[in-house]
Amino acid sequence: MSLPDEFHEIAKRVSNWGRWGAADETGTLNLITGAVVRSAAACVTSGRRVPLALPLRLDGVQTGLIPGRVNPLHTMVAVNLEMFGPGTVATSDDMVVMGLQAATHWDGLGHVSHAGRIYNGRPASSVTAHGRAAFSGLEKAGPVVSRGVLLDVARARGVERLPGGHAVTPEDLSAAEELAGLTIAAGDIVLVRTGQIQRYLAGDKDGYAHPSPGLSIRTPEWFHARDVAAVANDTLTFEIIPPEIEGLWLGVHALHLVEMGMLQGQNWNLEQLSRVCAEERRYSFLLAATPEPFVGAVGAPVAPVAVF
Amino acid sequence: MSLPDEFHEIAKRVSNWGRWGAADETGTLNLITGAVVRSAAACVTSGRRVPLALPLRLDGVQTGLIPGRVNPLHTMVAVNLEMFGPGTVATSDDMVVMGLQAATHWDGLGHVSHAGRIYNGRPASSVTAHGRAAFSGLEKAGPVVSRGVLLDVARARGVERLPGGHAVTPEDLSAAEELAGLTIAAGDIVLVRTGQIQRYLAGDKDGYAHPSPGLSIRTPEWFHARDVAAVANDTLTFEIIPPEIEGLWLGVHALHLVEMGMLQGQNWNLEQLSRVCAEERRYSFLLAATPEPFVGAVGAPVAPVAVF
Amino acid sequence: MSLPDEFHEIAKRVSNWGRWGAADETGTLNLITGAVVRSAAACVTSGRRVPLALPLRLDGVQTGLIPGRVNPLHTMVAVNLEMFGPGTVATSDDMVVMGLQAATHWDGLGHVSHAGRIYNGRPASSVTAHGRAAFSGLEKAGPVVSRGVLLDVARARGVERLPGGHAVTPEDLSAAEELAGLTIAAGDIVLVRTGQIQRYLAGDKDGYAHPSPGLSIRTPEWFHARDVAAVANDTLTFEIIPPEIEGLWLGVHALHLVEMGMLQGQNWNLEQLSRVCAEERRYSFLLAATPEPFVGAVGAPVAPVAVF
Amino acid sequence: MSLPDEFHEIAKRVSNWGRWGAADETGTLNLITGAVVRSAAACVTSGRRVPLALPLRLDGVQTGLIPGRVNPLHTMVAVNLEMFGPGTVATSDDMVVMGLQAATHWDGLGHVSHAGRIYNGRPASSVTAHGRAAFSGLEKAGPVVSRGVLLDVARARGVERLPGGHAVTPEDLSAAEELAGLTIAAGDIVLVRTGQIQRYLAGDKDGYAHPSPGLSIRTPEWFHARDVAAVANDTLTFEIIPPEIEGLWLGVHALHLVEMGMLQGQNWNLEQLSRVCAEERRYSFLLAATPEPFVGAVGAPVAPVAVF
């Protein structure tokens, strides 16, 4: 079974292989220049801060559907331990076991491969059990701070949340951009709101997982044309479930991560952000969203914050 | 064995219990107002970004000295798995096991107790094995974005790094503030550089652990007087090892976390930041340092970034 | 809310506190003497071996109902790694994260407490987050090898499996003993079959969890009168769900573990054993069932084997 | 770099590929027949039991030398939790993170490969990150109960422990067999004592790791000639360190696991067993040593017991 022709045609058009040199491991993050960061800082006029991460807990978004992507299991290794004797300062300590893509996270460029290749034409076999990702591990992303833009597709379409299976199209993105009253610029990080995470927040984990709205395979070209630095949304897998094109699973993953070398984020809670943007009547902000720098990681938790 | 009188006298002077109401769980983070955040954004003039987290790896700073505070064990649960059939997009997934205070982290307010109390007078017994911290868990910290200030004590003293056992005094902090050419303001997050982390970076983990410079028990008053929002440094435990006052272990922890309700950070890599500050001739910047929001956590990893 | 009078009356009658001295940490395992082990070996006449453990897998019996009791998450840390150079012997290595009571296991004596006490009158506070069980940790159990006896209650009642909520009574045990054609002797390890595990084996995890047959609060006296060394069954929690006496949860746990100092086992797969006993027309065998000796553990996986 | 000719010659002579059919996944465990088990049971004359597993603790034998093979990190997820209300039965629960080969364990047949093959000629690529070992996972071993024989090489050579680097030869094994006063029979499990584990027991973990005595590459033929079912010893890696033949690492692993399809065990504490055998003046016993049945595992903890 091979990927459909449509996929390969888009792939050719959006490929960034070689664009920043054969040695590049960070892809579209290269588009975040000093000027972009200054424009991000210029968005800070009220000092209001909005958190975008889900709380990390055992009762998280994972349902067991994706084996090994376990919700955070957080345990205490000491509770009020007076290790220096009775009456001394007592300490409590904790640890965690979790899938790196279990909660609010960035997908790293090594997360998917197709035709045996990852970003920049490197062999998929450079990802191994003992060494993890030899190239483009998330520790190489460095600081992710840029201008963030919310494309509130649900609001632009006048619904609370998009229906399961809905394909967010380039036209949807343009309508949301118009609602936002701005123009996406090179280096921006785009947050696409579908409203789907409301299902999880309401306690319906299975309904959150599927059916789910997601990004159409036609959207990567829209992002590519605007030289977006990264994209995140408020769904479990980023993709439309069931898939837009029968049999094409993870097509957007392959285009973003492998072809474009662009980080993508999932399980971002954009509900409060949507309300704040509507209140403040502006959809751009400084976005601080640096992944935890796990060496060789193909996914990493992030605690993103939008600053107005 | 009880804590020395000196500790109790300082504790009385720096206590913030009740200051933000009996229900408060975030302490000095309350000092980060919109105005403070705007002043932080005003620091961004070049767009240069400096990461302050250590890469997360099994070969991390922990040596086994603190049982259960294990270095990040990062493993793959899938490597190029074609889960939808041969020729389809293949995925790699990873997970981690780690102590929440194993690497670059914030101590939460529940991390230590003394005399059976944590911040705001709550019982230490509110931290439990099954429920973790019922109060002041790090998921409650919310976005941590403020003006950051580097107090480069090593540079101010003209050394590459402070010797093991050196007590950073209020006078050291004032000298570093003078070097910085600014005035610490309410809501600032202060980063105190000792240079100690060079030992770890050079491969000497044991030497990094002890002997170690750290903050004198007299410094919390200095921070309190200036209404600092949080403090981090570049050592394993934050404290002087061996302790400044014989038998008083974790005294600064108790003053910061329990009495003041102030987050403190450890294992922050301030080496590149020191060089950049010297080059840019300014020691203030926008600091984005939101902890991963583990529910009920007494510690949490953070990937702090300084933006100039 | 306190435990009902009936519980306290039974507790008094079955208590073994002090029976093997104030320092004892192993309770009824003391009943397994050399003579008992010799009688166990005498059961071996065909050499046939029957495994009683469930395979350890992520798709195990836990459903998330009991927080933190996670199914085995087994991952590879290396796959065919030629660590000594190309063409050399390659190694694969694995690790696991699991609840110690997640699969086929023994409950240790520290697993439950009531009225602030564990076995032999020790304070429940001797179990701590950092130190685990200071007394009666499963590393102290030592080798568990004895005569095993299957009490096949389901077969004795002529059903494939007992209905959910069924209370296995002393009369049920006596009927199964009669079916077995033997007399329970001091030091025997008794395996009580309800057939409930068929639900899990058929893929119905929720149905396995509840409703569930289990042992009546009247059965500990039956075991006590016969000086049984340990008891295991084929259910998730050992107990009847919903409980036999309204509001009395874990009553049998408290009697076995706290009062009698007797290990109890859960999630033992007794289906093949039932068939073999019926075929061989004998219900006693050598049972090898040593828990993994985790230091300070209140639960531990075991891979029990019956030898005929 | 390829393996030396000597290795390939021995490999040819000891290979069991195809011996139990092309579908076989358990190798020499096939040699444990009912008759062998009966002879094992016949060894039980006193009922004395000797445990051979090291206690499982964070302070275990691993030093970090083998990445990912982490000592057992055992934590409580609940401590005396009254989940059904105040005054009810309280529960404590625990979990563990550990390398499956971190402590007393069996190496599974998938643990090593050479020339792209594992036992019975299967491709090494049948071991994967997501699926683990598709063939010969340790859940397939089934009950491991047989006659055990201690070959006390240290005692036969009149030393407390063999020196680091000592190659245990076939001649050493024969001398120990003579000391034991018995003849190794088909299906026996042989325990080879070097005394090396004394170093760990005395607190010297590094000295335990290397230099270490181990089995010569000439011993697999000795085991093969006698149709031994499995072999375990009291060292960290089973092998001689530094290697007997320069550049040949894990040669015995490859012969035992890949060619013969024979489980091998490491970190077995044979010290008490040595004393008991000397006292009882017999070196054979019933050995119960069933691995924890992790599905697809290439290693698994075991709590072996010798019964006299």
TrEMBL record, chains A, B, C, D:
<dbReference type="InterPro" id="IPR007325">
    <property type="entry name" value="KFase/CYL"/>
</dbReference>
<dbReference type="InterPro" id="IPR037175">
    <property type="entry name" value="KFase_sf"/>
</dbReference>
<protein>
    <submittedName>
        <fullName>Cyclase family protein</fullName>
        <ecNumber>3.5.-.-</ecNumber>
    </submittedName>
</protein>
<dbReference type="Pfam" id="PF04199">
    <property type="entry name" value="Cyclase"/>
</dbReference>
<dbReference type="GO" id="GO:0016787">
    <property type="term" value="F:hydrolase activity"/>
</dbReference>
<keyword id="KW-0378">Hydrolase</keyword>
